[in-house]
Amino acid sequence: MRSEQVSPTEAAAGTSRLIGAVLLGPVRLGEALIAKGTRVDATVAETLGLAARRGALTRPLRLGWAESGDLHEDEAALRLARAVAGPGITIGSPTQSRVNLAASVDGVLRVRIDALAELNRIDPLEVFTLFHGQAVRAGQLVGGAKVAPHLVEAARVEAGEAVARSHPPLVTVAPYLDIEVAAIAVESLTASALARFENAARTKVVSLGGRFAGVTQVADDDHSEAVGQLVLALNQLTGERNIRLILVGGVSAGDPLSPMYEALERVAGQVLRRGVPAHPGSMIWLGAVGEATLLGLPQCGMFSMATAADLVLPRLLTGERLSADTLADLGHGGLLGQEMRFRFPDYARDLESPA
After folding, report:
1. If phi over 0 gives left and psi between -120 and 50 gives alpha, with beta otherwise, what is residue 115?
2. What's this model's pTM, rounded to 2 decimal places?
């Protein structure tokens, strides 16, 4: 980029030299403002020249001219946005040198964090997003792309595009799927408590686009009897009914003596993760039986509260196959106080937190 300051006197003497330049700073002419980054065409040049002749232009113009291989900031931002955006993302038009990325569907934002950092190490590229794993709504702003200079070397943008191509797609929104979800209550509950558990679980599942298949209650007063009932329930849900997601209340990640864990062994299931690096809800657990995933909380009543499970459940309802490794990313931003509720689905924004 070639840059130069042009005095009001020079601008008044002739406007042809201004055409093709880019304003490197804003120009205020009375109540009117010509924004920085504006490309100076014949109309803008004449406006500036006329203002200079009338004495309304009182400060030098700071101008830049593109040289071979330079891109205007709008073109550079658009190229970056197109490089990083994947399914579920709508790319906006340049606004004040920034191109917005919005969710085109309700779902969960997925960001390749390491690749994003690699791209942003390239001076002067800027791509920014909401948190990976955050529940978002259709139309919600989830990220943006821009460059700092008003004119930038194309080679820098190409380097950023290369990073995005090597980690495709860098930013996506995974939509919620029409998944059938069942629940198991491993507690001796009163009828009203069971109804509250079922209503809370149903509300969360339906809010995320799923279908709720009801609750199976298994009292845990007699261990052996509970194990047998849980084996039967798991076989029916995962085998006969082909349920792929089961919510479990009343089983703590820290209690290896729970009848659920013995039942899991008997049906060739496994515990994928005991506890997650987030609070509240650190005692949730993740298990699997064949193709089915189990998401458990220590108490059935916790399903009516806002916990780390409300970051995990949306991801499961996009069809994501979570593991111990993928749940490890909950640690960053995992202190889930009221100030972090923006990361939760809408249904959890105003729920009570566990004591």
Report:
1. alpha
2. 0.90
Q: How deeply is 340 buried, as exposed, middle or buried, from its count of CB atoms within 10 A (0-12, 13-18, 19+)? A: middle
With a CB cutoff of 8 Å and minimum separation 6, the contacts of 332 are none
Beta strands 70-72 and 89-91, pairing class? unpaired
Asked if residue 355 has pLDDT above 80, the reply is no
Instruction: Return the amino acid letter for 247.
Output: L
Cβ contact 303:352 at 8 Å: no
User: pLDDT band at residue 1, thresholds of 50, 70 and 90?
Assistant: confident
Using a 10 angstrom Cβ sphere, with 0-12 exposed, 13-18 middle and 19 or more buried, the burial of residue 67 is exposed
As a residue count, the chain comes to: 355
Answer for the pair 126, 100: CB distance below 8 angstroms, yes or no: no
Answer yes or no: is pLDDT of 149 > 80. Answer: yes
What pLDDT is attached to residue 14? Answer: 85
Q: What are 172-220's pLDDT values in tens digits?
A: 999 999 999 999 999 999 999 999 999 999 999 999 999 999 999 999 9
**CA-wise closest residue to 8 among 61, 45, 47:** 61
Q: Which pLDDT score, from 0 to 100, does residue 180 have?
A: 98
